[in-house]
Amino acid sequence: MNEYDYIIVGSGIAGLYTALLAKEQGSVLILTKGSIDECNTKHAQGGIAAAIGHGDSAELHYRDTIAAGDGLCDPEAVRILVEEAPDRISDLINFSVPFDTQDGEIALAREAAHSVPRILHAGGDATGERIEVTLSNMAILAKIGIMEHFLATEIIVEDGTVSGVRALDCQTGSIEEFGCKSVIIATGGMGRLFRFTTNPDIATGDGIALAYNAGAEIADMEFFQFHPTALRLPGMPPFLISEAVRGEGGILRNTEGRQFMFDYSPQGELAPRDIVARGILFEMRKTHSGRVFLDVTHLPPHKVSARFPSIYHFCQEHGLDMTKSPIPVAPAAHYMMGGVKTNAWGETNIAGLFAAGETACTGVHGANRLASNSLLEVLIFAKRIVQRSKEEGWRCDTSKGEHYSLSERGASGTVPPLSLAALQSLMWDKVGIVRCGEGLEEAASILASGQQTLEMLCDRPSYELSSLILSGRLMAEAALAREESRGAHFRTDFPESSADWLRHIVFRKGD
Ligand SMILES: Cc1cc2nc3c(=O)[nH]c(=O)nc-3n(C[C@H](O)[C@H](O)[C@H](O)COP(=O)(O)OP(=O)(O)OC[C@H]3O[C@@H](n4cnc5c(N)ncnc54)[C@H](O)[C@@H]3O)c2cc1C
After folding, report:
1. DSSP state, 412?
2. 112-164: pLDDT as tens digits
3. Which among 46, 248, 340, 396 has most CB atoms closer than 10 A?
4. Bridge-partner residues for 166, per DSSP?
């Protein structure tokens, strides 16, 4: 069996950035289930937040992040995020990530719920792609071992300490074993749980399943962010229309042409994402329509096409000229706030097991993520993981949060296996933007039966479905337990926040 100092699962920004830093400390292997560039990172449009502009400060960034998190951010983690941000941005600049500039300085955009312009972007709205290409080229040049089409299926833990990873070779179907001292799970999100999502196919919650099955803690699973504006065209997967379009003055109109967001928030189009997503959903219900419209026709056309080239061209390719007429949009599943619970050093409760990126729950997002804080979070905690992994021992504090277990739910009669499409519809309808106890109960039971009726795991689709069902179950059970509305979690039967619920829900296998 091959032995490494670090095995990193995933090749998005979290996997690649961690690998580039870890390489300075020892041998590194990246396992990734698709080709190197298949990831959420490549699709990031808006950019990356950091308080580097005139009139901005770590304190302002801290306050905005805490406000978005709606009472559940970990203040220590947020402090680290905002204070270490400028240094990590310098790292990216040293790596030659081509951030856009204006008058010789880095250009900064404004996004919803940020009190000042602080979003760095590259290639206009192609930030994620520029970062992914830069980092993957560097990883290849640095001769880091990268095994594409290897899907991690199990974290091997011996005597409470990580000792390796089992992985499916997706091309031959064989299971291979790799030994190591540290595993960093960097497997991204789980948007594919839902019928409508901005996420690519790889986002199937594998990291949650890997960590949970290894005995790691999973936290804040009820908090999933729905992006308010994804292009909604019949027969086409949703395509993200960045927050920054509203930041530049885009107006949301219902099918009757009326601007409606001020009915839902005094901040109008620039209200936090959950409020805008719910506003759109309620407006769609009122007007019996599957979409609303985003209008930028009042902005100078050259400004729109220069600032949002990817969005502009994508619309053009689909017969829409956004500078001439409003484009149809609707909410879509976007970003997982919860995940594998880590401390401020990216450590889980298992020695040698770390989590980075969207799959991790570092505590910076709380109940809702501030736009463009996720790419930043990756850099901050990836750096700390590698720093920490050099030291002996581990020190994850598992005291915060309340431990829950997946309750027994018996299936009545013979239940057919749960297909991916049925799972996605169930999650969208019952565990989506607006939830209620009855729907969550129903979803939790169906998901529990779905786990029992899973067919043999033998290939990538079957492993992914299994990870999705487990992740969906954790989400539905957490949403059911949290009898209040907070951040991205909204329940019609408990529409208010409750001070009793200023706490975290944490799952661990066998608890
Ligand atoms: C359309 C879109 C726009 C976004 N815009 C922004 C933005 O402007 N600003 C911002 O901050 N954030 C944005 N985000 C969120 C941000 O892009 C992600 O949170 C971030 O890129 C996650 O990086 P990651 O490395 O954790 O995961 P990913 O980039 O998704 O990478 C995960 C990797 O893990 C691999 N993998 C998964 N499971 C396995 C397995 N079992 N075995 C082996 N490999 C596995 C995948 O193949 C992939 O390589 C956006 C997201 C989307 C989808």
Report:
1. P
2. 789 999 999 999 889 999 999 999 999 999 999 999 999 999 999 999 999 99
3. 340
4. 154, 177
Atom of ligand 1 nearest to the CA of 34: 47
- What pLDDT shows up at residue 355? 98
Residue 183 lies in a domain: no
454 Cα to the center of ligand 1, angstroms: 26
With beta carbons less than 8 A apart as the criterion, state whether 5 and 33 touch. Answer: no
pLDDT-derived band at 397 (thresholds 50, 70, 90) equals: low
Strand 218-219: give its sheet, edge to edge.
360-361, 339-341, 218-219, 505-507, 402-404
Cα 484 to Cα 430: distance, rounded to the nearest angstrom: 16
Tokens describing residue 148: 């594409």
Residue, of 231 and 411, whose pLDDT is higher: 231
Q: Rounded to an integer, what distance in angstroms lies between the CA atom of residue 505 and that of residue 237?
A: 32
- Return the active site residues: 273
Asked if the structure places residue 154 within a domain, the reply is no
Residue 451 lies in domain: 407-507
Q: Tell me the whole-structure pTM to 2 decimals.
A: 0.95
Residue environment code for 411-425, b if the CB has 16+ CB neighbours within 10 A, otherwise e: eeeeeeebeeeebbe
Whether 398 shows a pLDDT value over 60: the answer reads: no
Query: Does 19 reside within a domain?
Result: yes
Residue 337 Cα to ligand 1 midpoint, Å, equals 13
pLDDT given at position 390: 84
